[in-house]
Amino acid sequence: MASAPRLRFAPSPTGYLHVGSARAVLFNWLVARQTGGEMLLRIEDTDTERNRPELVDNILEVLDWLDLRWDGEPVHQSQRIDLYREAADKLVASGHAYWCDCTPEQIQARAKKRGGPPGYDGFCRSRGLQSGPGTALRFRTPDDGVTAFEDLVRGPVEFPNASLEDFVLLRSNGTPTFLLANLVDDADMGITHVVRGEEHVNGTPKYLLIGEALGLGYRPVFAHLPVLVNEQRKKLSKRRDSVSVADFRAEGYLPEALVNYLALLGWGPKDGVEIRPLAEIVEQFRLEDVTQSPAFFDVKKLRHFNAEYIRALDPEAFVERARPFLSHGEATVEVLEPVAELVRDRVRLLTEVEPMVDFLRVDEVAIEDKSWQKDVVKHGERAVAMLDATIERLGTCGWERDAIEAALHAAAAEAGFVNDEGHPQMSKAQAPVRAAVTGRSVGPPLYESLVVLGRDRTLERLRQARARL
RNA sequence: GCCCCCAUCGUCUAGUGGCCUAGGACACCACCCUCUCAAGGUGGCGACACGGGUUCGAAUCCCGUUGGGGGUGCCA
After folding, report:
1. Chain A 306-365 contacts with nucleic strand B (CB below 7 A)
2. Which of A35, A147, A152, A328 keeps 20 to 30 A from A372, CA to CA?
3. What is the model's pLDDT at position A192?
């Protein structure tokens, strides 16, 4: 009886979770959800030197934010060391592994002297060394033959064993390396699909060889995803590129938008519909359809997706999602609520909300120099007339949207902002008013904004601007 | 050096021998709509890296070249 697929995401806590890893999780998760299988989480923390336990929290937290949940409890390799040592012992006993006391310097020096390819030369293969301080355990790779495997995204892959060096299984401090722990755990956890980054392709024959030597009869299905690259077409790196998922969260991206976008890197739905519910992606996703070429992470397109997702929110939900990004809390929420829909349609990031409505909250608005020049000073006498007429009309009109609109139309006509047919030219006439009241050239629709601002504060700002002229 | 891989608009992709004078999306440009800005509408710019084959026919298959990437660690 075939059991349900088991996938795994196996990060090492050596850095914050970045978008490349997030995509790897997503693809694993998609397969798990689609097949009714499981996605397990395994923390690969065998390298005690670089390991930063506090980063595990970041990884878990980010996965939770993305809503890409794992099944069961996370497995920590650091708590399973005995398992790997046991496997190592078996390999020594069967002659598949041997102890080596060469230092990296010695290995390098010999390679240089030899003039050939760098890498370990098998120096200790037949020295019969015993385990001891300063000795690492190496795997004896076959000298001939090939190791082949089937890859869902790249098809059949073959490696000549002669190109494989005798790699380290156990460090001289006794800790297992990635290859050993990875294989042992995948087999032990019953992982059926290994879906991971392309950078692991070359290590796969070694992984397989360990399994064979152990007599495990274990053979998962592989899928190596093309790497994500930056504008220089280099693999995304945490050092060079700012690609931490937590940073995107802080910038005001919605997890749904990020996940949707990530799904489209290296894969596309047959019908070409890009922005769609995750459930549909789960249904349509196929590892076999994943592209083999690297993909550039395009923030501009992500931003567009984000704007679309924000616009799809209903006003109440929008306010809730924006809430964590409002540094003045309830005071901002109060002024945002009446214009929530108008603001929601104009922001691409949640961090853009506050600057857009701040003029409604503050007591005194600072007018940006650029706006003052462009929208007021440049219009000269007509701007003066517009401000005067507006102060006049808004002082007495009713204080609701339509009344305000009518008042501004009348003021525009009075100030001479009219076209050939005598209709008010509001695109120009509103500029001085907007600048005076909001301090900026762009923002939410003016009439609705004034309703929220209130008559007193509106008039006060208009008078102050007028006084500057 | 050696091993592995990739190659369609600027970017993400559709395309699996004829439906392709190559489709969509983002970006960009123009116009329309319009109280600013968005959104929306219309149109535009824009690609099969190159050279050989195979075939009646190639973006699609094969070989080579060029370009790019990944790996080559007592990192994962």
Report:
1. 307, 311, 345-346
2. A328
3. 97
